[in-house]
């Protein structure tokens, strides 16, 4: 039986062997679809070329199968952390919306919703320090995810207070570059 299947399935470049990843799945769906392409700036430049075709024609070309065109265009969201500049051609096909960091109050609420066991006064202090760090000239300012990670770390350590020694010892949770940690240690006077 396996021999019969092998004899009849010699063309591996057929629809049957095509793996439909999220991009192709979104193109081929008939119901309304949202396609999120997260951190586009971290993708290879070749991926941008593919995205140009998708955003221009809502189609994907598969060399052995031809062009597969959307029956219903998906709503496509691209996100970028601006670690590299996206091509002008790709940006021309997009609407731009800058989302800034939340207010301290909103970030505190986000932190407490994700780390509900964290004492409120710890959340306020962590968010205050994060705000100060974001005002520094750093290679990478802390994101909301890093604020949440810091809250989880402080909670896991079972601390009674957040003092300069705790901040200095846990800066690596929110600052991922040695130069950023050194700058923060100096500017926060944690020595």
Helix content: 40-55%
Number of domains: 2
Q: Please compute the radius of gyration using only Cα atoms.
A: 24 Å
Order of helices and strands: HHEHEEEHHHHHH
Report low-confidence residues grouped into runs of 5 or more.
none
β-strand number: 4
**Structural class of the helix and strand makeup?**
mainly alpha
Keywords: Oxidoreductase
Organism: Mycobacterium tuberculosis
GO molecular function: oxidoreductase activity
EC number: 1.-.-.-
Description:
There is one protein chain. The protein is mainly alpha-helical and 191 residues long. It is built from nine helices and four strands; from the N terminus they run ααβαβββαααααα. The strands form two sheets. A two-stranded parallel sheet has the order 1-4. It folds into two domains: 2-92, no CATH class; 104-187.
Describe what is shown at a glance.
This protein is mainly α. It has helices at residues 2-8, 22-28, 45-57, 88-92, 104-114, 120-134, 144-157, 164-174, 178-187; strands at 34-37, 59-62, 66-69, 75-78. It folds into two domains: 2-92, no CATH class; 104-187.
Any key phrases for this structure?
191 residues, mainly alpha, two-stranded parallel sheet, two-stranded antiparallel sheet, 4 strands, 49% helix, 8% strand, elongated, oxidoreductase activity, oxidoreductase, P-loop_NTPase
């Amino acid at each position: 039986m396996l021999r019969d299947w092998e004899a009849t399935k010699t063309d591996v470049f057929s629809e049957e062997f095509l793996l439909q990843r999220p991009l192709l799945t979104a193109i081929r769906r008939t119901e309304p679809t949202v396609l999120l392409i997260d951190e586009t700036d971290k993708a290879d430049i070749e991926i941008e070329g593919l995205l140009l075709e998708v955003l221009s024609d809502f189609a994907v070309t598969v060399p052995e199968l031809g062009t597969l065109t959307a029956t219903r265009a998906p709503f496509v969201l691209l996100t970028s952390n601006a670690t590299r500049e996206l091509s002008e051609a790709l940006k021309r096909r997009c609407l731009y919306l800058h989302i800034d960091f939340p207010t301290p109050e909103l970030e505190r609420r986000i932190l407490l919703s994700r780390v509900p066991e964290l004492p409120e006064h710890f959340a306020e202090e962590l968010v205050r320090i994060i705000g100060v760090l974001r005002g520094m000239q750093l290679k990478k300012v802390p994101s909301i995810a890093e604020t949440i990670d810091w809250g989880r770390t402080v909670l896991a350590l079972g601390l009674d207070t957040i003092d300069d020694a705790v901040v200095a010892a846990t800066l690596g949770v929110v600052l991922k570059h040695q130069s950023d940690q050194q700058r923060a240690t100096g500017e926060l006077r944690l020595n």
